[in-house]
Every structure is written in C-alpha cells, then in structure tokens.
Amino acid sequence: xxxxxxxxxxxxxxxxxxxxxxxxxxxxxxxxxxxxxxxxxxxxxxxxxxxxxxxxxxxxxxxxxxxxxxxxxxxxxxxxxxxxxxxxxxxxxxxx
Length: 96
Known about the structure:
The protein has a domain at 12-77. 0% of the residues lie in helices and 35% in strands. The protein has strands spanning 12-23, 33-38, 47-51, 54-55, 61-62, 69-75. Strands 3-2-1-6 form a 4-stranded antiparallel beta sheet, with no helix packed on it. β2 and β3 (47-51) form a beta hairpin.
C-alpha cells in the first residue's frame, strides 16, 4: 500500500462553532442530527445540521453533546480555488 500524503496542504479555514441542539431521530432508520451554529457565518446561514456520529482516537463511535464547543474546517483542492482579490467583488476578478 503506498502513502498518498502530499507535502502541499489544501487551502482551508477553521471556524469555531457551538452545538446548538441535538435533533433526536423519529425512527431507527433515520440518524440523530446535531445542529451547529458557526461563528462568522451570515445570520440566516450560520446553522449546519450533520449526522451526530463521530469516531474518537480509539476508533470508538461517539456523539456530540448540546452546548459543546467545536471547530468546523473547510478544505478545498487547490484546483477548486482562485486567488483572492482584496479590492474587488470577492469573486477573484480584477478590473483594469
């Protein structure tokens, strides 16, 4: 098996978040969800809902608790990004 790790890191950002609430499953076939409030997000778009299932350092299944402070990391391939233009419209386009 070959090691496919790269020396180049993917562009990323990490934002603090809080577990606002745990959404219980109405049925065994539907997983429990955790609603996260991401700091720095626009007011109407700061909530994320994810399946409340994580794996700890020992490989055991664990769940998030309501009120827990967590981090949300967003990562992208280099090919999925463009240089940021600080003086424009935020879309990487520059005007002459």
